[in-house]
Each structure stands twice: as C-alpha cells, then as structure tokens.
Amino acid sequence: MEGDLRVEPNATVEVDGRLVVSGTATFVGRSEVLGDLECAGFEADDADVTVRGALVVHADLRARDSKVEVAGSLSARTVDVDRSLKVSGPVTAEEIEVGGVLEGGSTLSARNVSVGGRFRLAGKLTAQKVEAGGAVDLAEVDLETLEVGGVIRLAGGAVRRSIEVGGKFEAEAPLTFGSLEVGGVARFRGASKGGSVEVGGMFSADKDFAFESLEIGGIGSIDGNAEGGELEVGGKFDVRGSLSLRGSLEVGGAISVGEAIAGSKAEVGGAIKARRATFTSSAEIGGAAMTQEGLKACHLRLERKSRATGPLVGDTVEIHAKAKVEDVYGDRIELRDRAEARNVYGRSVRLGDGVSVDSVEYTETLEMGRDTQCRSPPRKVAALPKFPL
Amino acid sequence: MLGDSNGRPSAPRRRELTDLYATILEVVKRYRGVARITRVSYGAGMPVDRLRVFLERLLSLGLLRTEELDGRPIYDITARGQEFLDTYWKMRGYVEVLGRSPEERTGRRR
User: Fold this and answer.
1) Domains held by chain B: number
2) Closest Cα in chain B, distance from residue A1 (Å)
3) What pLDDT, in 10s, does the model give residues A345-355?
4) Residue A62 touches chain B, beta carbons under 8 Å
5) φ, ψ at A352 (rounded to 5°)
6) Rounded to two decimals, what is the model's pTM?
7) Is residue B6 part of a domain?
C-alpha cells in the first residue's frame, strides 16, 4: 500500500502473503499482523505488537514503552525497543538497543547491540560491540567486545578484543579472546586461549587453558594443562596437568600442580606441590615445598619454619631458621639456625647454630656454627654427585 | 543467578535487597550517565514506582547521582557505586565457592 499505515488498539491486520507499506507503519496498543510486513519505518508507542511473519523495516524500528514480537525474521537499519523484543527468526540490523529483554530464536547480526536487562539468543551472534545490563545466555559468538553487568553464559567462539563481566562468566565450548575481566566467577568448559585475565573471585577451566597473564583474587583451578606469561593468585590454585609460564608465579596461599611447573620466578606464601618445579630465576617459598623430582631455582629460599620434601637444587640455596628439608644441592648453601636437612651437597656450605644434618659433602668451604650436628663426618670431595633436574 | 557446581542453572533464588540494588546499578551504568527511570525500570524488571524508592536510597548513599536533562531526571553511577558493584560480585563469587561442600568441590576431579 502507498503511504503510511496506522494500526489502532486491538486491531488484527490480515495479510495475504506480504503487506508492503511504502511509508511508516505505526502501532498503538495491542495489535497483530497475520503475515509478513515490509515498511519504510516502524513506530510503536505504548504498544504490544505481534508480527506473525517476517518483518522488514528499511529504515528505523522505534518502539517506545512497547513490546514487539516477530515470528519470522527481522531486518532493519536500527532497532530501538523500550520493553522487549522477541524474534524467532534471524535478525539483522546496524544498531540494536533494547531497554528490557531481547530474545532471539536464531542468529543475530549487528554492529552494536545494547540491552538493558536480559539477552538470550539461540543462534550465532555476530557483532562488533555487545553490552547488556542483566543476564545473558548466548550460543556461538563472533565479537569484538562484550560487556555484561550481571552473568553471562555463552557456547564459545571468539571475542577478539575485550570481555568485561560484573558477575559470572561461563564459556561452554572453546573460546578465544583478547582480554577478560570478571568481578566474580569465570568458568571455561572447553580448551580456551586468551590475553590478560583478571578474576576477582573464582576461576576454573575444565580443559587446557592458555593466557598472557592470569590474575585471580580468590581461588582457581585448571583441569588440563596451563600455559602462559604470568600468574598471580591471591588464594589457592590447582592445575591437574602441567603449568608452563614464561614469567613469574605469585601465589598468596597454595599451589598444587599434578605434573611439572616451569617459570622464571616464584613467590609462594604457603605451599607449592608438584611432580617437579623449575624456575630460571628465583623461588621463595613461605610454607612448604612438596615435590617428587625436586624444586630448582637459580636463587632458592625457604622461609623460617618451612618444610620441604623432595630435593632442593639451586646456585644459591637459603634454608631459613627452623626449616626442615630433605636433600639440598647447590653452589652456595646456607642453613640458618636450627634448620634441619638430610644430605647437603655444595661447593660452599654454611651451617648455622644448632643446625642438624645427616651428611655434608663439599668441594671448597664448610662453616659450622655452635651445636651443629652432622650425623656422618663432613667430607671434602673432589667432585659432587650429579645434581637432580 | 549463579549456577550449581555442575554448571546447571540453579533454581532461581529469591532476589534479595542487595541483588536488586546491584541490578539497578548495573543497568544505570549501562546508559553511561543518561539513564532515564523508564529505561532502568525495563532493564531491572521493576515497576517505576517501586524503582523510585530504590533510586532514592541509592542516591542517599552516594552510590548514584542525578541531574536533569530536558526537565527529566537522569541517573549515573558514582565511584562509590562502582565500588559497591565490585565488592558485590566478588562476594557472590566467594559465596558460590564457599556455599558448596568440599565433596562437591573436589567431586569432578576424582
């Protein structure tokens, strides 16, 4: 039809195939279109509009204080709906803004999508920027940025730049992303890869996880292998496989790794547990070091009253007062007052007051304090046994 | 709402007052300084008259600020409001972890 169409409250528009309106279709109150509708513009005010077929709007769809439901596909240049928009078929638009709820039964493709409240989509979402204030439930995504105030669950895909989530983030399948910032909980169920990751509360990955930096305020776990730049955890961290870092490891509490840990530097306030742990620079352990094959660092320091099982290896090894360790291998080894060790092998060895060891083998110097106990006489040797690791 | 330990959506728990305040703040934040009450009402899923009471409370606590645009109030989140949200979500994360028994937490690793 030529010109505009105005649909009054409680009207039903019967359509034989497709209704084409050359001007603007305006809706007021509750109304229904029983077929496809194509129009230059779509306006609704305090309305509840249902289109039983497809809706094509060549310019803008505006629905103030209104709900819009489309049984088929929807295409428009821009979409601005105050209350809710529900579309069963594919949606394409440049800009989509919904104040309340956006629900889609198929795919959605837009440059920007902004939803004030809940956003749910069953098909693939392709967009540059997506923002939502409430709960978001998505299938596969192909995005540049994603910002969610509440909680989000998505199937997987790619978010090339950043993801910011206030509450909880869950990815059900593999996801690649630029950066991720989550206030509460982040959970990855598929093998995933990303840049910097910051999580305020809890982090978990069920498969392998790769990152540039990973910072967790609370506790974290990775059920596969972990590979990345730097790792900082406020509380506790578990890795079922191996943990390979190019940079430093900082853990306030405890870290447990099923296989090997490798990195440049480690600071662990509590305990470190692994099959083996090697650091190219330094390692400082506050509580306990438990390894089967050993803990190695260029500069290795175990704090006062700490405990170690498994060999300790380093260029410089400092075992502080009252610590209790097993075998120690190093170039320079110092056991401070009342520390205890099993066997000590070093070029230069210093044993503080009250230190207790089973045996000492050294190649150059040995200094012993008062009341030092060495159950076998110390031996100066030409060469030390081969160090582990 | 947060899910259970197996990732299934948990039965929706009743929204407590703090949840409502957080929801409102998140919706206001989304509009970057020009949030109108009707839009916040749709986003937060709360009628305007009830929302008005919550907004007043958030304003009095300094978690929101308001000004007029075209004779109508618009709302924006304050730094203190953002601080509330950061703390709220972090705490929700901990509550999810601590709310589970040790068996539930270790169950998937066996």
Assistant:
1) 1
2) 34
3) 999 999 999 99
4) no
5) -75, -175
6) 0.88
7) no
